[in-house]
Design brief:
The protein has ten helices and 18 strands. It is α+β, with helices and mostly antiparallel strands. It has two domains: 201 residues; 101 residues, no CATH class. An eight-stranded antiparallel beta sheet has the order 2-1-4-5-6-7-8-9. A six-stranded mixed beta sheet has the order 10-15-16-3-17-18, sandwiched between helices. Strand 4 and strand 5 form a beta hairpin. Helix 1 runs antiparallel to helix 2 and helix 7 runs parallel beside helix 8. The longest helix has 15 residues. The two termini are 25 Å apart. The relative contact order is 0.15. The mean pLDDT is 91.
């Protein structure tokens, strides 16, 4: 299920943006232009479908902290409610969720989001005949497998997406299909490589087809690729980055997995605790991009962090190879990495700029901005 467009309104520095998606999407721009906000908005959409909208927003300071606070265009005399609206268009579905501040009440949970409206529909234009979900506050109407529009019988949490609260998949197969696909999205923006990181110590391992968000199960993930994944590309990626080196996954008699790297000119293999931050991060990127269970959408935020400039080319090649199986989203400060990915894939990077109207895509005509 490829994403065709992502639309964001009212989130932090993004007043209104519609981004056309490709197989590889590289987002560049100066510091403070809103690259991270765009990445977080997509991450927030995935968290909403996983039932973690309120918790994720709480870590960002709550709903009042994430709403657009800049100047608004005067279209009518009436003041429109402040909303954060996130939506995607895929090959089959359109999904949109609009959140705002909760209604005044005695509750102390005033920073929680309140889902105001939520819709899922088929085709370009939302019509009653193509709408699968229509939600207003805590109430929702669904189109079931027989094409009947019925009220959803279960009371909905005001602060979470209806897709995260669905029951009875046999009654709503299309909606469960959409929810399942979005739950396959993966985001990598923080690999722990500090001295106390679990990556640097032997860990009990099980077959690991998906690397964890922080990379703690890296050794088991790499061993899984060696056994059931593209081990040839794994070895080639290590060799390209560290010429003459060989990756070793050591497993002791207690099934603890440890990463070792045999490098030329060194008589013994270096253990994970001895490797540089950049080396460990690069191995994490290999494990995420070569997963035997590819993600529907794989998002990397600043993957170049701590990496030596010579690693940009092998990283770009890994990203290009992974795009055969996943849609890629890469937010980067590195113009070098962006240019190398463009040369390999033909996909031009999307440059963001910051104006009085907030974060915008550079190079759009006034008419395109209006649309």
């Amino acid at each position: 299920m490829a994403i065709k467009t992502i639309s964001i309104q009212g989130y932090r520095s993004i007043q209104n943006m519609r981004l056309t998606m490709d197989d590889i999407n590289v987002i560049v721009g100066a510091n403070g232009c809103g690259k991270s906000n765009l990445y977080k908005a997509v991450y927030l959409l995935a968290k909403a479908v996983n039932g973690e909208l309120a918790e994720t927003l709480a870590h960002e300071g709550g709903m009042p902290s994430v709403l657009w606070a800049g100047k608004k265009k005067k279209i009518t005399q009436s003041k429109a409610p402040v909303r954060m609206i996130l939506s995607i268009q895929t090959d089959d579905f359109n999904y949109e969720i609009a959140c705002g501040l909760p209604e005044p009440s005695p509750s102390v949970f005033t920073f929680d989001p309140e889902v105001k409206t939520e819709h899922v529909w088929l085709g370009e234009t939302r019509r009653p005949s193509t709408t699968l979900i229509e939600r207003q506050g805590p109430s929702a109407w669904m189109t079931n497998q027989d094409g009947q529009r019925i009220p959803y019988p279960v009371g909905l949490s005001r602060s979470e997406s209806v897709l995260s609260q669905l029951q009875d998949p046999h009654l709503y197969p299309e909606l469960f299909s959409l929810s399942k696909e979005i739950k396959k999205w993966r985001f990598y923006h923080h690999f722990r490589t500090d001295p106390d990181s679990p990556i640097r110590s032997p860990q009990i391992g099980t077959r690991t087809e998906v690397l964890s968000n922080d990379g703690y199960n890296l050794a088991a993930a790499l061993q899984t690729i060696i056994e059931i994944g593209n081990h040839e590309l794994l070895n080639e990626s290590v060799s390209r980055a560290f010429p003459g080196s060989k990756l070793i996954i050591n497993v002791d008699n207690k099934m603890r997995f440890d990463i070792q790297l045999q490098m030329p000119g060194i008589l013994r293999a270096l253990e994970a605790r001895e490797l540089s931050d950049g080396t460990l991060r690069y191995l994490c990127l290999i494990a995420s991009l070569l997963s035997p269970r590819p993600a529907t959408l794989l998002a990397l935020n600043e993957p170049e962090t701590s990496l030596h400039p010579e690693l940009m080319q092998p990283l770009a090649e890994l990203i290009a190879a992974a795009s055969q199986y996943s849609q890629l989203w890469v937010t980067t400060h590195s113009q070098d990495l962006a240019m190398r990915i463009e040369k390999l894939s033909g996909n031009k990077p999307v440059k963001l700029i910051r104006t009085e109207a907030g974060t915008q895509i550079d190079g759009l005509t006034p008419w395109e901005r209006l649309l």
